[in-house]
Design brief:
By secondary structure, the chain is mainly alpha-helical. It has a single domain, classed as Rhomboid-like (Rhomboid-like fold, Up-down Bundle), CATH 1.20.1540.10. The protein is built from 11 helices and 4 strands. Strand 1 and strand 2 form a beta hairpin. The protein is globular, with a radius of gyration of 23 Å.
Length: 263
C-alpha cells in the first residue's frame, strides 16, 4: 500500500514547496492577465534590453494550464530523490535545493547562449525573438542527473516506467508532441546543465555560494526592473541616461567683453 499524500509531502519538502510555489505563481499570472512577453525569456529581451531577471521569472512562470500540470506531474515523480534511502543520500534535501537552484540559473544562461548561437552564428534570426516560460529545464536537468547516476527507471508523466537513461529524450519527444509550443532549446539547456552537474563539476556551488550569487542576482534584478520602470521603490528614482548632476551642455558662465556673464 502506498504512502498517504501527507506522508509524501513530509518526505519531499523541497518538491512540495516548489510545486506550491509554481501553482501560486500560475494563479497570480492568470488572475492578473500576465502573458509570455511580460515574464518570458528571450534573447532580445535578456541581452538586447538587459532584462536578465527574466532568467528567473521565466522558469518559475507557466502561462498554460496543461504545461503546468505536465511539469508538476514530472516534478512530483522526481521528488523521490529526497528519500533518505535514495539518490538524495548524497546530500539530502539541502542537495536537492542546491542543485535545483543551480539548474534553474545555469539552464537559463545556457538557453540564452543557445539562442545566440542559433540566431547570431547560424543566422537563424527567428530564434532571437522566441520566448520561453516554464520549469521544464530544471526538470530535464534532474532527469539527466538521475540517468547519469544509475537510477534504473522513471515514470514519464505517469504513462509507464522506462529506462532512466532514455527518460530525458523520451520526455523531450512526448512534450513536443503534446505541447507543440514547448521550447526545445529550453529543454535542451536543462539536459546539458544536468550532464555537467552529474559529473560533479558544479558541486563547488554550495548553498553559501548560491546564497551569495542570489543576493547579487536579486540586486541586479531590482536595478534593471527599477531602470525599466517595472518596479517602483519608494524614495528611489533612476535617472535616464541623458539626465545627471553634471551639465554637459554649454557652460553656465561666459566672459563677454571682459565682463563675467552668468546664464
Amino acid at each position: 500500500m502506498g504512502q498517504s499524500i501527507v506522508l509524501q509531502v513530509l518526505h519531499r519538502p523541497a518538491t512540495s514547496l516548489t510545486c506550491t510555489l509554481l501553482g501560486a505563481i500560475y494563479l497570480y499570472i492568470t488572475t492578473k492577465g500576465i502573458g509570455y512577453d511580460q515574464v518570458g525569456l528571450s534573447y532580445e529581451k535578456a541581452v538586447g534590453r538587459c532584462e536578465i531577471w527574466r532568467i528567473i521569472t521565466a522558469q518559475l512562470s507557466h502561462v498554460e494550464l496543461l504545461h503546468l500540470l505536465f511539469n508538476l506531474t514530472a516534478l512530483w515523480s522526481l521528488g523521490d530523490v529526497e528519500a533518505a534511502d535514495g539518490f538524495a543520500s548524497k546530500g539530502g534535501v539541502a542537495y536537492v535545493v542546491q542543485m535545483s537552484i543551480v539548474l534553474l540559473l545555469l539552464s537559463g544562461v545556457v538557453t540564452v547562449g543557445l539562442y545566440h548561437v542559433a540566431g547570431k552564428t547560424l543566422k537563424r534570426e527567428q530564434f532571437l525573438s522566441v520566448t520561453t516560460v516554464g520549469y521544464s529545464a530544471v526538470i530535464f536537468g534532474w532527469m539527466t542527473i538521475l540517468a547519469a547516476t544509475g537510477v534504473a527507471s522513471f515514470s514519464v508523466f505517469g504513462f509507464g516506467n522506462i529506462p532512466m537513461y532514455l527518460t530525458p529524450f523520451a520526455s523531450l519527444i512526448l512534450t513536443s508532441i503534446i505541447i507543440p509550443r514547448a521550447s526545445f532549446m529550453g529543454h535542451l539547456s536543462g539536459i546539458l546543465v544536468g550532464f555537467l552537474a552529474a559529473t560533479g563539476a558544479l558541486d563547488w556551488l554550495t548553498l553559501w555560494w548560491l546564497a551569495s550569487l542570489a543576493v547579487w542576482a536579486a540586486a541586479i534584478t531590482v536595478y534593471h526592473m527599477v531602470r525599466t520602470e517595472r518596479l517602483q521603490v519608494p524614495g528611489l528614482r533612476m535617472l535616464h541616461q541623458d539626465v545627471g548632476d553634471i551639465e554637459t551642455g554649454s557652460p553656465a558662465v561666459h566672459i563677454v567683453g571682459g565682463v563675467v556673464e552668468r546664464r
